Amino acid sequence: MTRERAAGEPDDHQDIREAVRRLCDGYPGTYWREKDAVDAYPSEFVAELTQAGLLAALIPEEFGGSGLPLSAGCAILEEIQRSGGNGGACHAQMYTMGTILRHGTDEQKQTYLPAIASGDLRLQAFGVTEPTSGTDTTALRTTARRDGDRYIVNGQKVWTSRAEHSDLMLLLARTTPKEETQKKTEGLSVFLIDMREVAGKGLTIRPLPAMVNHAATEVFFDDMAIPASSLIGEEGKGFRYILSGMNAERILIAAECIGDARFFIDRATDYANERSVFNRAIGENQGIQFPIALAYAHTQAAALMVADAAHRYEAGEQPGAQANMAKMLAADASWEAAEMCIQTHGGFGFAREYDIERKWRETRLYRTAPISTNLILAFLAEHVLGLPRSY
Fold first, then answer.
1. Residue 301's pLDDT is what?
2. Which of 29, 136, 212, 306 is the most exposed place for a label (fewest CB within 10 A)?
3. C-alpha–C-alpha distance, residues 231 and 189, integer Å
4. Is the pLDDT of residue 97 over 90?
5. Weakest-pLDDT range from 85-94, 106-115, 348-357
6. Tens of pLDDT along 1-57?
């Protein structure tokens, strides 16, 4: 059942939201269930998003994109999630843009951005996390050693989603040994890798089956040679460069969580109005009403935090605290709404045809990734509240 937007729900970028909703109407629950059942990549959906210009929303017009602000990207991803889709298939192309746009060379931008905007190239892989370091990014072991006009890369990444469906990868590697730096955040560099050039030549990608269909992989680098021109910005300054990308990542994923929460609230509200037990709609019971209303209130509050973080990012700030709070609060709101929705549906919440259990699995991810709640709390305690470092 389609319903008018409730009071207080988003009124920004309405043209974009409507365009996304129309596109998503062509990809109902059956489409996503079929992909989920066999861990298949939603190629048709991603292709249509690209053709509609939606994945190029944040690329400047001079490079073939729309030149829209981050809040427009938030609106796109939120609506995909609210429709019952999975923006995780393509969201990396949005949050990797910041690093390239802010720190890439003119040649890198001219070479890659128009092709990304047109869909001739995909930038969907973000190689940061490693098996031994996890979210301790400064402890990563992947190295890139300068050798004349090239770098030689060795190491391993894990949970690198969409590497099999991407042409380009944004890679973070250590170019100076940690023991030779004054600060542990120094000596890390960012590279834009053309995976088409190195596939089978030092680059190996292995699928990593998981609870959700995010095309997760492990990536191995064995003496992989890349041109020196792959370096983004200044060597050794990569950690600072990816911070802006990480802030964008957190904000965009927070918007996805808001979309998930609204999906669950919409479905629960509709079901509570339609489902009759003991000769009355179950929505007449406050035991059903109150959890839905509480999830809605928490979602609205989290959405305000997401909007604040996005506006700060658009203003050129490095809103680390706001981006992290937005991600945490939105992920908590979406999980609360998911739990409420599956409980409202009772046994039918576990039936695949209702799409609740699929979305329940998908939204759970964001309380853990791309950064866990505990690390967000530790960040706020130390950097915002001035408490002693806990790790």
1. 98
2. 136
3. 7
4. no
5. 85-94
6. 444 555 556 779 999 999 999 999 999 999 999 999 999 999 999 999 999 999 999
What's the whole-number mean pLDDT along residues 75-103?
A: 92
Given the structure tokens 């305000």, which residue do they identify? Answer: 304
Q: Supply the residues annotated as catalytic.
A: 249
- pTM, rounded to two decimals: 0.95
> Peptide bond preceding 370: is omega within 30 degrees of 0, i.e. cis?
yes
147: closest CA among 77, 202, 109, 76?
202
Do residues 184 and 251 share a domain? no
Domain count, the chain: 3
Output phi, psi for 316, to 5 deg.
95, 5
What percentage of the chain exceeds 70 in pLDDT?
A: 98
Residue 138 is part of a domain; what is its CATH number? 2.40.110.10
Domain assignment present for residue 72? The answer is: yes
**C-alpha–C-alpha distance, residues 343 and 387, integer Å:** 39
pLDDT tens per residue across span 245-271: 899 999 999 999 999 999 999 999 999
The two tokens of residue 381 are: 């305690």
State the CB neighbour count (10 A cutoff) for residue 278: 7
Same domain, 274 and 358: yes
Q: Counting Cβ atoms within 10 Å, is residue 111 exposed (0-12), middle (13-18) or buried (19+)?
A: middle
CB atoms within 10 A of CB 374: 13
